[in-house]
Amino acid sequence: MDWIVILQAGVASGTVLLFATIGEILAERSGVMNLGVEGMMLLGAMAAFGVAVRTGNPWLGLLIAMLAGGLLALLHGLVTIHFQADQVVSGLTLTFLGTGLALVFGEGLSKAGAISLLPTASIPLLSRVPILGPILFTDQSALVYAGYLLVPAAWYYINRTRPGLHLRAIGEFPAAADALGINVIRLRYLYVFAGGVLAGLAGATISLAISPGWFSEMTTSGQGWIAIGLVIFAQWDPLRAAGGAYAFGALRRLIIDLQGPTMLLGMRNPFYYNPYLGLWLQMLPYAFTIVVLVIGSREAMRKRLGAPAALGTPYVRSQKV
Amino acid sequence: MAEPKPAAEKWKAAFPWRVSIEPRITNVPRWLPPLVSLGALVLALVMGGIVLAAVGGNPLQTYLHMARAAFGDLGVLSDTLTKATPILLCGLACSLAFRMKLWNIGAEGQFFLGAWAASAVVLLPVLPGTAPKFLMLLAMAMAGLVGGALWGAVPGLLKAKLNVNEVLTTLMMNYIAISWNNFFIFAVWSERGFQMSPVFPNSAWMPRLADYARQVPVFAGLTTHLGLVVGLVAAAILWWVLYRSQWGFEIQMTGDNPRAARYAGINVGRNTVLVMMLSGGLAGLAGMSEISGVVHRLQGAISPGYGFTGIIVAWLAKLNPLVVAPVSILFGALILAGREIQPSGIAKLLQGIILFCLISSEVLLRYRIRFVRVMQA
């Protein structure tokens, strides 16, 4: 086992979670919780792979995946913002809907042959930095680099720009934002859409770059839900989200690599000689998500901070807050 | 203000009405909610038909085929009821938790753990295969209840003590439950390396209608089993608990307004754990009923998402246990017939569309949509 290789692959697979988590942070910061990330990711993964297979152009696939995720999210926006339905139920519905659409339109895609994937590249000077160079800047997909740029950009946007201030305002105190002339309804649609676009991008990252192909529901295998868990752990902060996403990516990778070698730490590797033990390893990301949620919730209770105040409640002008 | 565009003027002249959406002040008439739900269902089928047509199917023929495959004759009707049984129990599990606004999305995992615990009674074995049938089934049912309840207790405790979001914990527990089950199927109880346990002895089989074919010839080949009766009894009991008991009132009140409930002296934390345990227990019972009544062994593919379908069923039934029963038959039909049509995701997609139309339609219950005549200037 080569730690550098594991971390390198971990960063790549963490990029999936990163996109989805930051998308959900944007939506939740605006006051709309979208539990449909898994469905949007699955639809994005299917759309990206399907388009890439038919047109041979993975970039077009990427674009369509982002659009598909965004459009699905707009449905959630319509139901929760305009019809004021419960955000939890609507989000769950979105998961069903996205999964169903992906399975129906992805029928037969799993048998599609190899496609041209998104390009990988090494960054000339940075890749020669010891340790960090090979992990972060060598042979990574273009999307991984996009992830590096997205994290500070999202942080700066939310915390240091005027539109970011508006975003935080509509999530914390929509009535006050409305009184200032900020269009709460329109902005919420915008950020729900943005969250969907990023979830679609996360799906496309799986099917076009990280583990290429279409494996029906196994393509995402619950990563959308892990992303929602990471949002709580990250306390709606993109920088913390990045840490969580890459750590989870490395964990996913480690689980695969633990089962490979015959020797582990100088002992016979039990996971190699008894492959069924791997099933226990497979539980780890999900068990870890629960641990991470507990940590996040405890911290939020202690510091008395946490979710945007208006998260989960529809904004209606005539109603008292 | 900008001048109104000429096109808008022309439109106003031809149709001097304006759609006005007003909050309802008076009570919703009793006939409206079922009508709206029915309308949403029909709309969902139409939208599903459009998707079917988009992927090159014939919607009308597909729906007819599905109806025949689910209700065409006594045999398939009985299969539909068999499929409806676990959905009924999972729907009850979700109805109970949702009443308290506890989003138990983990019925699927609780189902698997119930199935696992019931199998443990046979396979460990806790009881020998020669034990009397009623004792065996009773022990399995208890084990299923306890297995599901324990699986539900974890998110319940985390929610009550640490305020951890139960949507995510219950969901994560689903994935853990599936790996847990797989470990036992692959490694511990595997039958000659196959990914399934040995077939249970006959004492662990719930009686089916077909078992009485000698006395009642019509029953020959019918798969409906005792689990359906268990589910219906559970529905009746749960209805009484929710609508007639004090505890049910506490649950309802906590769901509507947790702060008021706390002021009223209701122990919200304790009720959270109890509701999650009972909800998990019902889902676990569904798992037991499925392996004892249908599969007769523990294996991986024992659920095509019954736990998730339970969520939709509960919502469609407006969390009323007595309505859950008929609705679960509808979804049993959908899952049964869904296996026969291509592409295979159609059943799941239809479930999603139905739920979507349903929650959208609820806006009609909160708001009145009226056409108001526009005054001519």
Layout of strands and helices, then pairs:
The complex is a heterodimer of chains A (about 325) and B (about 375).
Chain A: H1 3-29, H2 37-55, H3 58-82, H4 87-105, E1 120-121, H5 132-136, E2 140-141, H6 142-160, H7 162-172, H8 174-179, H9 184-210, H10 223-233, H11 238-258, E3 263-264, E4 267-268, H12 270-273, H13 278-303
Antiparallel strand pairs in A: 1-2, 3-4
Helix pairs in contact in A: 1-6, 1-9, 1-10, 1-11, 2-3, 2-4, 2-9, 2-10, 3-4, 3-9, 6-7, 6-11, 10-11, 10-13, 11-13
Chain B: H1 6-14, E1 17-23, H2 32-54, H3 59-71, H4 74-99, H5 107-123, H6 133-162, H7 166-188, H8 226-244, H9 246-256, H10 258-263, H11 268-295, H12 306-316, H13 321-338, H14 346-361, H15 363-366, E2 367-373
Antiparallel strand pairs in B: 1-2
Helix pairs in contact in B: 2-3, 2-14, 3-4, 3-13, 4-8, 4-11, 4-12, 4-13, 5-6, 5-7, 5-11, 5-12, 6-7, 6-11, 8-9, 8-11, 8-13, 12-13, 12-14, 13-14
